[in-house]
Amino acid sequence: MAAEHAAVAHNPNIGTTGLDHRKMGMWAFLGSECMFFGSLIGTYLAYKGKSINGPGPHEILNIPLTSVSAFVLLMSSLLMVLALAAVQRNDMKWGKIWLFLTAVFGAGFVGFQIFEFTHFVHLGLTLQTNLFGSTFFVLTGFHGAHVTGGVIWLLAMWWLAVRGKLGPQDSLKVEICGLYWHFVDIVWIVIFALVYLIP
Amino acid sequence: MATHAAFMPGTKVSAGSVIWSWITTVDHKRVGILYGVSAFFFFLVGGVEALIMRLQLAHPDSTLVTAGRFNELFTMHGTTMVFLAIMPMSAAFFNFMIPLMIGARDVAFPRLNALSYWIFFSGALLLHLSFLAGAVPDGGWFGYANLTSHQFSPTHSIDFWMLGLQVLGISSLMAGFNFIVTIINMRAPGMTLMRMPLFVWMSFVVQFLVVLAFPAITVALILLMFDRFFGTLFYAPSGGGDPLLWQHLFWIFGHPEVYILILPAMGIVSEVLPTFSRKPLFGAPVVIYSGIMIGFFGFGVWSHHMFSVGMGPVADSAFSIATMLIAVPTGVKILNWIGTLWGGRIRFSTPLYFSLGFIAMFTLGGLSGVMHASPPVDLQQTDSYFIVAHFHYVLFGGSIFGLFSGVYYWWPKIFGKLLDERLGKLHFWLMMIGFNVTFFPMHFLGLIGMPRRIYTYAPDLGWNFWNLVATIGAFTIALSFLVFLGNVVKTTRSGAPAPADPWDGRTLEWTIPSPPPVYNFAVEPVVHDRDDFWVQKYGDGHGTPPRKPSPPAHVDTSSIHMPPPSYWPILLAGAFLFMMSGALVSIYQVVLGAFLTLFCMIRFMLEYHRPAAGGHH
Amino acid sequence: MDSSHAAHAPAAHDEGHASVQTYIRVAVVLAILTAIEIGALYVPGLPKHVLVTLILIFGTMKFALVVAFFMHLRYDNKLLTVLFVGPLLIATGIILAIMALFGAYLLLARG
């Protein structure tokens, strides 16, 4: 009985598989998000090439610029992993730096998106212009919203660390934040390929 | 911290503190009761909507309600029954019973669990605020585009529906994640997946269906929202959009949804039949695999709801074959249920009656379903009362009968009182007769040409007689519910207290008191078999002798820590509701609501971050 | 960034673990794959089906690298892989089905 109580008091978040509930829950959530983005991507592909009028993707997408932002997001995943590694080894100085930089890179990506969106509006592409406008803005917009949520989460973790309230005992929370962040990155890998690269 | 007592001894218990304890509860059992009471309330609401429709249709050329009002009635009846009655009633059982059946003291995420209830409540509220606003949804429970476009539905009625469903979807998703983790990660020692009770198995499959299907309707509704609020072209033919996109996305959700609606009831039946046959479930592993197959292949049949839209022979054939294939694991389950009864020492109790009713009625519904699986046959049947008959046989004759079987079966465990058997059986017979009198004639009506969703009909079409019969049946069903309500009132007042194991049960929930203490199990059970409690009592008939119950352990239950109550679930749900309903009011409310939601989310997530020494979540 | 960081040796984790070096190598591979993809767009006369195949394959590789290494799935309990890959396959199936139902596959064939 004492052993049982000790087990419960030890860490109630670890289950019978040895996995933390919250980590498992995040993976289940990411599986669900695959269906969410899958439906949006399916919609984009269903309507690809079917706009009645322009402008279309070939006229308006700026591949060089978007390649830079895609690269930024991709590298932010590296920064995230470095942040986690730092927190796990109790190197909170670098933990804070990497967390902050990840957020900065993420915010940079969102900044690129906002620039791209406003630029497209100037060029005559809005949500209502044609099917490309509707599908493009909604698909990339919801992705951007997910990135924004991730940036807020990262900044919150960073702020906790700054206040001395984040340490190696919280590395699971950083890991879970990281899982979300990497997912947002891999969704962009798919979107970048299907929307921007594939003609 | 309070343990088995609801309040610390000596606490002054006022009505306010009782209400507060329910509002801030994170106890899965209480959350289950909240879901159950809500579900039953909305079941009555949906039932009244049905009765009004039946009164209108009882006679030709009726003017009881207008056409517009009739559209609102069938829309709200369907939406309410699916999302506010059947799903939450299943959720009530998930919440109360899953931890008990796997030998756990709690769910994986108690506050998330409470949050999913309060968000459900918000969604139900938002949907019904439409009545106060005089803009009741009227586009059908399936909201086909482009009837739902701003052009053809200029009032807020579709907005209420769209936003309400979005909120309800979030609730279901959260609960789905919670139960997936709970079932994988919190089973008692020795309870391998194959030793898990069938109700838990079916619920497990359902949670995956939920988390994979709801995102599709979330997207469908988002696209609709953008069309209605921001003028996008997703479902707008004028801009090259295709209304069929809605149908595909909706039914990619909608078909798994119907399995979400039926599998819990199938799980209940798979518990009740063995208990009252005093035999194990025949071919339990096969029933489990069939459930998994139904869940998985349920993602591949959605366009059988669309045979009449002109998808072409390839698509029609593919979905037709897939649909017919799904009938196989379903049929396997039915045969296994019958095999369970065969040779058993049957005890004819009310729970068993409802499960038997389930088998019979669901089989009939399945037969009409297999008919629709053929596209040429479906072209005749689609959008006729033949379809109405089909889905009421599977959803009412199936889900509702199954859920009531669960109600009578688990009532003693949940409330500590036994329901009256005679009144229970009277309820059953009235409901069985009423149900068949209402819905069987609809097969005829469909075949002689009566379309769905019409608010009245001419007197010379030959539809008068069966419509009147159906209406009489509907009121008989209503009468049966009054009997049930009477049973509840009577036994709550003066019913016999229920023992821990009133049915000589097979699974772990019957090993603890009725109702269970807040911590469920004083001592964590160790499981050796499927139907472990039965084997413990009687051995397994294959050489394993009964286990002597261990002497009552002197467990110091006051040292069992259960998570404390929290007001963040209801606050976060309220903020979220404020934000979502802002879409109907002003952008400022949406923005303010978003900030409030973010604030509440952060506070919720940090509630147990770096707690004071001794606390844990 | 690289050299200053190589000095901070990562602590071994309970499960098998990738080192910081591995992460950096993965990041380099990701960058290279992306560069090739973009470069391929500017190759004159590259047949469309070759380009599309290359983009799809490289995209899949990048996806897999991030999931396996950055998200640690390669080193974690296999259950988590099942929990993610199952839904991923269903989502992919739904995308393909929608494409087929809306005649979108024609786009990939054309040109």
The count of domains of chain C is 2
Q: Whole-number average pLDDT of chain C?
A: 84
Individual helix count of chain B: 17
Largest interface: A-C, 55 and 51 residues
- Helical residue percent of chain B? 55-70%
CATH architecture of the largest domain in chain B, please? Up-down Bundle
Total number of helical segments of chain C? 5
The sequence of SSEs of chain B as H and E is HHHHHHHHHHHHHHHHH
Distance between the termini of chain B: 13 Å
The general outline of chain B is globular
Q: For the report, how would you describe the main beta sheet of chain C? A: none
Assess the beta-strand content of chain B as a share of residues: under 5%
* Secondary structural class of chain B: mainly alpha
Number of distinct beta strands of chain C:
0
Estimate the mean pLDDT confidence of chain B.
95
State the separation between the terminal residues of chain C, measured CA to CA.
44 Å
Low-confidence regions of chain B: 1-8, 612-617
Overall number of structural domains of chain B: 2
**Proportion of beta-strand residues of chain C:** under 5%
Tell me how many strands of chain B there are. Answer: 0
Structure characterization notes:
The complex is a heterotrimer of chains A (199), B (617) and C (111). Chain A has one domain: Cytochrome c oxidase, subunit III, four-helix bundle (Four Helix Bundle (Hemerythrin (Met), subunit A)), CATH 1.20.120. Chain A contains 7 helices and no strands. In chain A, helix 4 packs antiparallel against helix 5 and helix 5 runs antiparallel to helix 6. Chain A starts with a helix and ends with a helix. The N terminus of chain A is likely disordered. Chain B is mainly alpha-helical. In chain B, 65% of the residues lie in helices and 0% in strands. The radius of gyration of chain B is 25 Å and the shape is globular. Chain B starts with 14 loop residues before the first helix and ends in an 11-residue tail after the last helix. In chain B, 55% of the residues are buried. In chain C, helix 2 runs antiparallel to helix 3. The relative contact order of chain C is 0.09. Chain C has 111 residues and is mostly helical. Chain C is flat and about 45 Å long. Chain C has 2 domains: 76 residues; 35 residues. Chain C starts with a helix and ends with a helix. Chain C contains 5 helices and no strands. The interface between A and C is large, with 55 and 51 residues.
